[in-house]
TrEMBL record:
It comes from the Bacteria. The chain crosses the membrane at residues 51-69, 75-100, 121-142. InterPro entries: YdjM-like. This is Inner membrane protein. Keywords: Membrane, Plasmid, Transmembrane, Transmembrane helix. Pfam families: YdjM. The keyword Transmembrane applies.
Length: 174
């Protein structure tokens, strides 16, 4: 899957969960690929979508972050980003390995997508829309954070901006 789609998916999921973690999640969502370059720089030959694309290691990282140790959710966000990457790659024909014990490729939903074709863009676009919808709902149903919006009315109440600024910006949400 293309980076732009990996980034869109992990970024919008993080935006709904914890907006401040978007950069970490985005970093994680591209990690399985840039880690391959890193290993190559260290002189190791890595085939694409092998060691850095094990579903099991990213799932383990996520579980570790959630259950054992983390620092401001950074590990969790990074591992969740990486897991989203390998799961999205599992939607493509090439698939990903589950772990070091197996050469078999793991596919989700039959692995129909071909990297770079429209399917993955539709998928990523749909995912972003769902996140956007969730963000709207949590905002209207009493959520105190608003990942996709700047809450101008709230800033106004807190005296951060003056009335003119609020008037100018109250319909500008993005
Ligand atoms: Zn990849």
């Amino acid at each position: 899957m293309k980076w732009v789609n990996h980034v869109a998916i992990a970024g919008s999921a993080a935006a709904v969960w914890r907006p401040e973690l978007v950069p970490v999640a985005v970093l994680g969502s591209t990690a399985p690929d840039w880690m391959e370059w890193g290993l190559q720089l260290l002189g190791r030959r890595v085939k694409h979508r092998t060691v850095t694309h094990y579903v099991s290691s990213w799932a383990f990282g996520l579980a570790f972050g959630l259950l054992v140790w983390d620092w401001h959710y950074a590990l969790t966000a990074f591992a969740a980003g990486g897991l989203s990457h390998v799961l999205c790659d599992a939607l493509t024909v090439q698939g990903v390995p589950l772990g070091w014990w197996s050469d078999r490729r793991f596919h989700l939903f039959g692995g129909r997508f071909r990297t770079g074709q429209m399917g993955e863009y539709w998928f990523a676009g749909g995912f972003v829309l769902v996140c956007f919808g969730v963000a709207m709902l949590t905002r209207h149903w009493g959520g105190e954070y608003s990942p996709f919006f700047f809450d101008w009315a709230e800033y106004y109440k807190e005296g951060l901006i003056d009335a003119a600024e609020w008037k100018a910006n109250r319909f500008r949400w993005l």
